Hints:
Jelly Rolls; Immunoglobulin-like; 12 helices
Amino acid sequence: MTMARRATFALALAALATCAHAEEGLVGYWRFDSEGGTVADLSGSGHAATLTGGAVVTEEGKTALRMDGETQIEVPSAADLNLKRGFSIEARVKLTDLADGRTIVFKDKEYMLRLDWPVETSRLSFFVYSDNQWEPRVSAFKPVAGSWYHLVAVWSGSQSFLWVNGQPFEVTRHGELPPATDNPVQIGSPLGYGAGFVGSVEYVKLYARALTSAEIMRKAYDIPEGTPAAGSASTVFEFGKGPQGWQAKEGASVAADKGGLTVRSAFPRSLIMNTNLAANVDKRDYLSLRMSVDKGSRAYAVFATTWGAGRIPFQTFADGRKHTYVLEPWQWVGWGGNLIALGLVPADAEGATAHVEYVRVTPQVQAEPEACLVGLWTESTLPRAKRAETIIAKIRNDGGPAAKLTVTLTPPEGVALKGAASQKIARLGYQEAKELSWRVVATGPLTGEFRVQVGGAQVATIARTQRLTFSPPLQLPKADYVPEPVPAKTGKYTVWTHYCPLWKQGTHTGWKAIEPWPERKPVLGWYNEGTPAVADWHIKYWLEHGISAAVYCWYRSNLDGPVKQSLGHAIHDGLLKARYLPKIKFGIMWENGCGKGVGSKQDLMDNVLPFWIDNYFGNPSYLKVDGKPVLYVWVPPNVTRDLGGSENVRQTFDEMRATCKARGLGGLYLVGCVGTANKEILGTMAKEGWDASSAYGSGWTPPQEVKTVGSFVCAPYEGFVDQQEKIWKAKNELNLLPDLTAAMMGWDSRPWNETSFFWSDNTPEKFRDLCLRAKAVMDAKPTTGPDKRTAILCCWNEFGEGHYIEPTRGSGFSYLDAIRDVFTDAPKQHTDLAPGDVGLGPYDSWYREARKLAPLAETTSDTLWTGPKLAAWTGAMGLEKVETRGGVLHAVSSTSDPAFGSPALKVRANRFTKVVVEMRVSQSGGAQLFWCTSSTGTSEASSARVTTVADGQFHRYTFAVGENEYWGGCVTSLRLDPTALEGVTVEIRSIGLE
Length: 994
C-alpha cells in the first residue's frame, strides 16, 4: 500500500466513525428494532420500508425482526437503489428453517441475495442480473440453522463477491447493466426466486459503491473505527497473567487461570478480541500462539490495522493437546502500520473448548517447536521384494527452532533394515524441512505398515504410519522395447478412459507443480509425453487391465480458418506413432470450453470436421460405436451458442453425419458431457439430435460437513461415491438420452490450487466400490444399446486435479487392478511391469533438462528475472516453442489466452508498486498481469493491464500494481498474459518488481 493510499484509508476510517448516514455511498439502511408498518431509512436517503407482519425480539444481545415466512418488507424502487457497477449489500441475519430456498434481499431483474433451494445444496448465494440472465451466481456454503451470519454481497462490474462472516467467495461476472426497473426492493418477502425468510434479520444496508475488504472485515467482527486514544503498545500476551484486555465476543465465554485463558465457543464464529491496541507492526512479522482445542479443524486470527483488516485461517488439531501455531500476518493484505485490534476464533465448531497459553506478535518467531511428519514414501515408483529399496521420510518444523531430534523408522515384519533405525537432526528452524532415508529389503512380496517416530527434549513425540507395497521380485532380461501387451479378457463390458494431455514440458504447468506431491509420481516417472515409447507403455497398461479405448482432450486454438490446435503432442507425436496403436482404440473429446469452439456452421463444416476426418476418424484404430466414429464434446451448450440455436444444431449434426457417411465412415456418434442430471440441458440435447450423454468428471458438490487440512477443506471419499451414483441413476430416470456411465476416480486439486475443497481418504478399495456401483447401474438399465455395457473412467492422468488411474508411486497399479477385477473376466493374478523391470527408461529427459535451467524450489523471494533465470517462468497455457535462448524468453501464442507462469513466490508486496516487463511482440495489442497472494486467488480484480506496441523493438511495460487494493501481503505467484491474440511471437528480456 502506498503512503497516499494509507493516508486515504486513515481519513476514510475517521469519516466512517462519525455517524451512520455519513457512510460513503450508503443509499439504504433499515434496522429492524421496532414494530410498526413503516421502517425508517437511516441512510438519510428517504427510502422508508413497508413492514407487514413479524415480531421484534432480542436474541443474544441483538434486537432483530423475527420473520415467519409470511412477513413482507418492501422498499419502493428508486434510482439510487438500482444495480450499478460498484454496488454492495450488507445484512446480518439468522436462518432457522433451511427446508426451502429463502429470499434475503431481492430486486427483480437486478440483484438477489438468498439461500438456495435444497436441490441446489442450500448455499448462501448472490446473483446479478446481466445479459438477460441471473447466472453465474457466487455461492458460499450451507449455513447452520440458528447461527448469525454477517453477509456482504458486492458486484464490481466484472466480479461478484459474497462475504460470509468475513470469509470471501467470488466468481467472474462480466456483463452489461440491465435496464433500470421500477421493481421494489424485497427483504425476506415470499416473492421472486425464494420462499419467505424464516429466522431473524437485524439490519440491511445498500451501498452505491463496492465496499473494500478492510471495511467488510471490520463490519464482520464489529471492530471499532479509528485508533484507540490510549491503546496498548504491547503485542505479547502471556495469558497466565490474566486476559490483558482480551474480551469474549459473539457467544464466547472466557476464564483465566495460571496456565492461560479457557475459551468456550457457543458458535463457530465465537471469539476473543482485544480492541484497545496501538502497536506498530511494520517489523513484527510473526504471530505465534499456543493452545489446545477439543473440536473443529480450523481457527482464525482476526486483525485490524491502520492499513486495513484481515482474517487469517489456520488448521488446528482437536486432540486436546497443546500445539504451537505460527502465522505470518505480513502475508495478508492490510497488515502494517499500527495494530488496532487482534482477535482469535479458536474453533470452527459449536461447543468447542480451547485453552490459550499465549499470543505473541514479534519480529522473530518466539514459540515452542512443532514437529510435523510431512510424508513417507519409497524412492522407487514400484518397489519390489528381495532388492534394496530406499524409504524416505520428510520432517518439517512448524514452530520455533528445534534441536536434537531423533527420527526412528520401524518397518513391518518381513522387511529388514540395512543400517540404523534411528537418525539424528541436530537443528531444525522454523519452516525448515529435511528428508531422511533408510535402505530396506523385503524378504517377499507384502503390503505393510511402516512407522516413523520423531521425538526430542523440546517436542512432543509424534508418529506416522504409511502402508507401502513391495511387489513380487522379477528376474527379467533387458528388453529392446516396451514389451508387447497381453490384453485382459474383457467379457461383456467395454471400458474407456479420458486422457488429459498436459504433461509435455513447456506446454502447461507440467510436472513442476506435481513434484512436491511424491505419491503422484507416475510409475513411468516424470515422462516425456508425446513420445511413442510412453504411448506404448500406456497402451500396454490399458489393455492389460480391461481398458479398450482412450478419449483424448482435443484443443482448438483458433476460429474461422484452417484448424490450429494446442496440446496435440500426445496424439500426434506419441499415440499415432506408437507400435501398439493397432491393438487399441482412441477417440477425441472436443474441449470447447477451455479451447475454442467454432465461429459458425461453415467453420465447423469447412474446417473442423474435415480435420477430424482426415486426422482421426479415418484411422483404423479410431473409436467407433455401431460403425460410427465417436466424438465427445465437453460443453454441449457452447455448440448451441456457436451454431445459433438448437434447430441449427440438429440440422448441422445431420449434415455432419451425412458427410461422414459420404467418406465411408458410417455416420457419427455424438456424445455430450453433462456432469449432472440437468433436465433442461439433457432435454435440449435430445431435441438437437445427440446420440448419448456422458461426462468428463462429475457434477459433485462439497458437502456441508467438512474438515480443514492446511489451507484446504475436505470430506470423506464415500460421499463422493454416493453423489456419483445418485447422478447416474437420476440421468437414467430422466431417460432423455442414453447415458454412457462416467466414473470419476477422485478430486484433489491441491497441486494446482483449483478449489479449496478436496475429497479425502481416496483408496483403491473405495474406488473399487465406485466401479461396482457403476456396473450395477449399467446392469439395471432396460436398454440394449451401448450405454448398457460401456463405462468411461475419468481420468487416466489428471494429476493436477487429482483424478488419475495411471500407476503411480503412491498406489502402484491398485486402481487399474480394481478396474480389471470389476469389469473383466481375466484372472486376478498377473504381472505388472515398470520400465526398470526390463532395463528400460527413464523417459524424463525433457524434464531433467528443464530442471537444470530452473531448479525446482518450493518458493523463491526473487524479484528480478533476466538471462538464464528467465527459464524459471514456464508456459502455463496457450504457448508453443517456449524456451530461454540467448538470455531471452521466447514463445509463440497458440491461443488467444496465452500465459506465462512464475515460480512459486514469497515476496512482500508492500515493498513494490510496479512490475516491469521488457518485452517485444510481433503484433500490437494488450498484455495483462495477474497475481495471487496469501489471501487472494487469480481474478480480474487482482490484475493490471498495459497496451503493447509491435515495432520490432523491445519496450519496458509497467504494470501499476500498487494502485490496486488487492496488491498487498505476500505475493505467491504471477501470471503474465503477453497478448490476447493467437500467433504472436513473444520475446521477454526481463521481468522485475520495482
